Amino acid sequence: MEVHHVTEDAETFTCNAYLVTGDRPTLVDAGAMDGVVDEIREHTDDLEAVVMTHQHGDHVAQLEAVVEAFDPEVYAYDDHPTRTHEIDDGDTVRIGDEEFDVVYTPGHADDHVSFVSDSSLFSGDVVVHDDGAFEYGSFGRTDMAGQSRERLIESIQELLERMPDGSQSAGVEHMYAGHGGVFHGNVRDVVTTALERAEKREPKYPDE
């Protein structure tokens, strides 16, 4: 599976948007970077699908522009004017060359879902590898209206339960989060570390 971070050079605030090429070219989140359509066209002219982890502005601002340019199928948990397919916990979606399980992971956002396959995790904002608060295992903020640390903790626990444990294969080795860096290695350990930090129930940021 080949993954291109198409908002990597953004100069404005955006999420990480990932273009996954292969049998079914798919964009995971649209981001908020002007010019993301041009970045996608550097790799493909045939974007077949967009899958959304959630609909915070930094993840969805460019969605309509992407849809206008490529007319892809759009998968999202909550309603959106461009949505063509509603997804829910337990569903399966094809991203690139792999089948991913949809895991409902609210707490940071009520409509948040993550996508996990035998090898890879698109975690959105529920868990990230690194950010301004923590390195190697951080979690989405929960200090704004409608967010819940307790629900986020439950979501991370659920995500761990739904990730392959590695007994039948190498396990999940690639983590593509909505913010921070891409991680390759023992993803289960990163997610476990994030859970342990979230369970301390301390403010993620000093002013939280």
From TrEMBL:
Q: Which domain of life is it from?
A: Archaea
Gene3D superfamilies in the cross-refs: Ribonuclease Z/Hydroxyacylglutathione hydrolase-like
| Metallo-beta-lactamase domain residues | 14-179
Q: Which InterPro entries match?
A: MBL_Glyoxalase_II, Metallo-B-lactamas, RibonucZ/Hydroxyglut_hydro
Q: Which SMART domains match?
A: Lactamase_B
The protein's GO terms of the molecular function aspect are: hydrolase activity; metal ion binding
**UniProt keywords, alphabetically:** Hydrolase, Metal-binding, Zinc
User: Which co-factors does it depend on?
Assistant: Zn(2+)
Q: What is this protein called?
A: MBL fold metallo-hydrolase
Q: Which organism is it from?
A: Natrinema zhouii
- Lineage, top ranks: Archaea, Methanobacteriati, Methanobacteriota, Stenosarchaea group, Halobacteria
